[in-house]
Amino acid sequence: MKRTLRHSIPIFLCFIGAISASSASETAAVSNRSPEAGEVAYFPEDGAVVKVNPPGFVWLPEKEAVSYILQCSSRNDFSIVEYDKTSLLLNVHCPAAALDPGRWYWRYAYVAEDGTIAGWSLVRSFTLAEDAVELPQPALTTLLRRLPKQHPKLFLRPEEAKPFRENIASQKPQLWNDFIQQADRMLETPITVDEPAPYPEGRRFSDSKEDIDLWRKNTGITVRAVEHAANLAFAYLLSGEEKYGVRAREWMLAVCSWPPNGTTSYRYNDECGMPILSRIPRAFTWAYNALTPQDREKIVQCMKIRGEEVYHYLRDSRHQTVRPYESHANRAWHFMGETAIAFIDDIPEAQEWLQYAMDIFFNVYPVWNDDDGGWHEGTAYWGSYINRITWWMDILRAGFGIDGFKKPYFSHAGDFPLYVNPPGSSFGGFSDGSDMHFPASDARLMNALARQTGNPYWMWYAEQAGDRSSGDKPDYQVLLRANLPNVTAKAPDDLPSSKIFHGVGVASLHSNLAQSASDVHFLFKSSPFGRQSHGFNAQNSFVLSVFGKPVLLWSGHRDWHGSPHHTQWMWETKSDNSITVDDVGQIKHNSRARGKIFQERLGEDVDYLAGDATESYGGRLNKFVRRVFFVKPDAIVMVDELEAPEPATFQFYLHAKEEFLIKNPKEIVANNGESSVLIAFATPSDLKITQTSEFDPPPIGMDLKQWHLKAETTEKQKEMTFITYMKAYPAGKEKNMLLDAMQRGNQHLYGFSDIDFRLGLVLNPGGEKYTMSKIENDAKILLIIEKKGEARESSALAVEAKYYRAFEKTLLDKYDREILFVSSSDLKEEKKE
Length: 833
Fold this sequence. Notes:
disordered N terminus; 8-stranded antiparallel sheet; disordered C terminus; alpha+beta; 17 helices
């Protein structure tokens, strides 16, 4: 039994909370408004089942509020209030102890500047699951009590430094020697004394290539400087050798001599400001004894200014607990947290920074994710951000005894690269940077995640992707994780071959997850996150990889963020394998350009899903539903249902690395080396097909070769259905496909036949009852699959059927669901029984 938070605050505060409803002003009331674009949603959602205990409570702020009151009750009339918290300054709160499992109700009110207490919000309910993990947010006083009084305060406690060094030196002598040799090499690096150069002509920043190049150069200078400081400081902490402390001190003082409001400030160049916020605190706490009081004071004053800058940006400008959907801010807060911990005894404001970092972590982080392990910003940014947050969680564990890996997301975090960018693949899926993101990039991180969570499949990923966790020149990060528990790798042969990351709208469908060399991988996006931040790709778009190589892919490559190519090509729908209407695509780079995967059926033989991208067109379409049938191992049937407010033309786009071979609309071949895809448009019949290798505008500084195919309707119509057949195969083994189409009554029939399958597709938009191939049904869409060869097994997948009878057996009662899959072998076995 969990301990319910009863009488957890002073009696007089409980009294204030208890009388707040009766004393509320008639003119002061919680708005109960819906979230605007980019704002947090209420949490726990009404009716939600919560897997972490206690939950972090999140609500929308009120303009008149100076503080908030939160109440939780096991009764919907709040006649008993088990938890009452007043004087909350933010719109979030996570209790400091667990609640009892079961049904709960929560509400909040606010206090205005004149002391008026608003009436209560709507009452929302949630259920705390019996197996919910306990992860309460400790009070600030508790955090300060747990933190070591002496240095070091980050990663290692003072009493742990010597045993840690002895263990590494005795158990992993080669690693220790390699680290010391690397530190010795760093002793020879000249100190960077001068502040990195400003942008030309006194400007702050622009999207010009000149400024981007300087931005990158200055970032490199800064990272190099602070990494030298941190590595040498760690060598000093563990070895005690003065030479490392002396050099670490020189690097720290050099960086802290740069004006904290200058070219390396967060607002001027955040990619300079953030490394300073994390690495200088590490160096300071590890080499504390190598610094004089005067040295410490110089560093403290520098870091006070830098910490305050980021804190006020996040809290007052960014409002991170209200509008957390910004990329860089989602690591700035925990870098600020590192500064707070290292300087907790030297900077009075550091306690406030630490509290704010904890409020973000326990209540609104992570934000680009879902509980399935999905990540809206793609594998490249997944690797970058998850790597960074794991170091913060190592700090929490060492300093405060908090296990951040208990957050539900982290039990599935490694599934995202496992399914989207498995070992042997060469395309990382959707979002910026993923087009050139290889599994080896995440091998070291997957190794760490596997060892921190005990997941054997993630360790398999690390090993297959070429994990070299120690590297040739190991740094302090390698040492810090050298003693994590070992995990035996296990191939994902017993995992489902396909997975949908529902919250981020990404479906990853595989024929062979464990063997990219023989895998056909269909990756699909229709996301409720929209097209914001680095997750720019169009809704209802896809990538098709064959034997580890992308054959149909999204096009372009980000030369730099915000470049003409990035904003005018990659952010446009035409750059994806998706559809435009009258040559106009979806709302670009916006959270309102939402999609959703609203139907699914995943299986060993056939995967089916349906995505709705209508909302992303901002009124230019009344309907765009894309249905995908993946008949494993290598055939895909795609049905696109389109409806416009007025007659329009529709453009269907495909992109490949090599020139398309176009024989006719029913025989198009896309290649990438040894991997090929046959593409056939069954409908419409009047398509005008063209292709080009031109970008408008092209990326700057690279010679990118890609081909773009456009299949366009020639007459304006309000409604249109594209039916597309795709067959994956090894290049050089030409595939022949027969296609038939006919109409019978109100049903439209399409037949696809190749050497492996005969597929029959029936569209029955009216939902009328009909008979087809011994199947009597009223499904709006029916796919019949007949395998050729000796087995000649047949199966069928029915979508939105209310009646279904096959082989003289009615299955409606037994299979009462939106999507029904039945095989002839199943029915025969059932009949024998």
